[in-house]
Amino acid sequence: MTIELEKSLHNFNPDHFGGVNDFLSTADSNERDTLMIACADHGCAPDNVSFAGTERFFILQHIGESVPPPDRRQPNDLFGAIEVGFYDYDLRHAVVCGHLGCGVIPNWLKDNSGPDTGNLRAHFYAAAVKAVDTTYPDLTGEAYVERVICEHAIFQLENLQANPSIRERLDANGLKLHLWIVNDETARVLAFDPRVGNLVPIEEMR
User: Fold this and answer.
1) Whole-prediction pTM value?
2) What is the mean pLDDT of the chain?
3) What is the pLDDT of residue 52?
4) Which residues are annotated as a binding site for Zn(2+)?
5) Is residue 190 one of the residues assigned to a domain?
6) Annotated binding residues, as ranges?
7) What is the DSSP string of the chain?
8) Out of 1-5, 25-29, 165-169, 194-198, least confident range
9) Which of 51, 157, 159, 178 is the one with CA 20 to 30 A from 73?
């Protein structure tokens, strides 16, 4: 399964991305070397992937795997926890992990009148919803929600790479980015391929 997306919506350097071989080649490692930002609605084990041990991951679960833009940081936000992770561990990979069974995003789409701590829902509408409405105007129903889930996750990865400390590590080749979308029903993982702008089976991201 491949989900074809509009490449022009996002700006990534393919050299900043890693692939599944980064984990397969060190499959026996128990070093905590991977930051994972996952959705709070994804359950207790978003790191439960077959090609890497759970001890590899420093996990931050946040509503809709949301990453605030660096110019809109607030006290005690996600980046504070990210900085702790990089201080305490030699993190070499950063994964933003969304999932197709997300309950947060459909709820945001149904009701935008509730509390919006940190303006996360407002950022969601300004980025992902606007992009999907403009770029994929013919999508409706489940296909629309799926596309919003995918685009939202990619925008969060853009926010992550825009952080100066993350950008510095990327430019020094000390960190690799990954974007995963998990199919909750099949446990299959799609990965973002910045060369073509699509989500492809993770096995193809070598």
Assistant:
1) 0.93
2) 90
3) 72
4) 39, 41, 99, 102
5) no
6) 39, 41, 99, 102
7) --B---GGG----GGGB--THHHHTTTT-----EEEEEEGGG-S-TT--TTS-GGGEEEEEEGGG----GGG--TT-HHHHHHHHHHHS---EEEEEEETT-SHHHHHHH---S--GGGHHHHHIIIIIHHHHHH-TT--HHHHHHHHHHHHHHHHHHHHHHSHHHHHHHHTT--EEEEEEE-TTT--EEEEETTTTEEEEGGG--
8) 25-29
9) 178
pLDDT for residue 68: 86
CATH code of the domain in which 84 resides:
3.40.1050.10
188 in any annotated domain: no
Buried b (16+ CB within 10 A) or exposed e, 147-158: bbbbbbbbbbbb
| For residues 194-206, average pLDDT | 93
Counting the structural domains of the chain, the total is 1
Q: Is residue 73 part of a domain?
A: yes
Q: What is the pLDDT of residue 205?
A: 86
Q: What is the maximum alpha-carbon separation in the chain?
A: 48
Domain assignment present for residue 12? The answer is no
